[in-house]
From TrEMBL:
Organism of derivation: Candidatus Jettenia caeni
Gene3D superfamilies named among the record's database cross-references: Glutaredoxin, Tetratricopeptide repeat domain
Database matches in PROSITE patterns: TPR
SUPFAM superfamilies: Thioredoxin-like (SSF52833), TPR-like (SSF48452)
Signal peptide: none
Protein name per UniProt: Uncharacterized protein
Length: 150
């Protein structure tokens, strides 16, 4: 990723503005053990307490890296029950990167956020219908399949 993704200005600015990046070799202890590092690159999104919320393994192009990291930020907010902030990041993935591999999971998680923040199952059903329409072969569409019954 050093040769392709990280040098991209938009990637560099996004990482600089959104994270406190830390690069460690995959065999650096205690990180390798504590974070179960087995392959490079491994990107892990942590919260302020150091708890992991999102992980990617392997090369990501600039077009895939930013939405993956946005999804990671959304997952931090989701796990902290900060649904408004999570929804904001998920909407950005869906509006700015609708063809990325992170988009289906973002659409699924958006439906779950809507449900958890309102207790209205409509968000879940809408998520399934949108996934079925836009990403019919996605694993996230299959995971949302039961929501069609709501």
């Amino acid at each position: 990723m050093d040769a392709v993704s990280y040098p991209e200005k938009k990637v560099n600015e996004f990482i600089t503005n959104s994270f406190i990046p830390l690069r460690v070799r995959s065999d650096t202890q205690p990180f390798a053990t504590n974070f179960n590092l087995k392959w490079t690159p491994t990107l892990i999104v942590l919260d302020t307490e150091g708890k992991e919320h999102h992980r990617t393994i392997g090369f990501l192009s600039p077009e895939e890296l930013i939405p993956s990291l946005l999804l990671g930020i959304a997952k931090v907010h989701f796990d902290l029950n900060e649904f408004k902030e999570a929804l904001s990041k998920l909407e950005k993935v869906l509006s700015d990167f609708p063809e990325s591999s992170s988009a289906p999971e973002s659409m699924y998680l958006r439906g779950v956020c809507l449900y958890k923040s309102t207790n209205n199952p409509k968000g879940l059903k809408d998520a399934y219908e949108q996934l079925q329409n836009k990403y019919p072969e996605s694993e996230w569409t299959k995971r949302a399949y039961p929501y069609r019954l709501l």
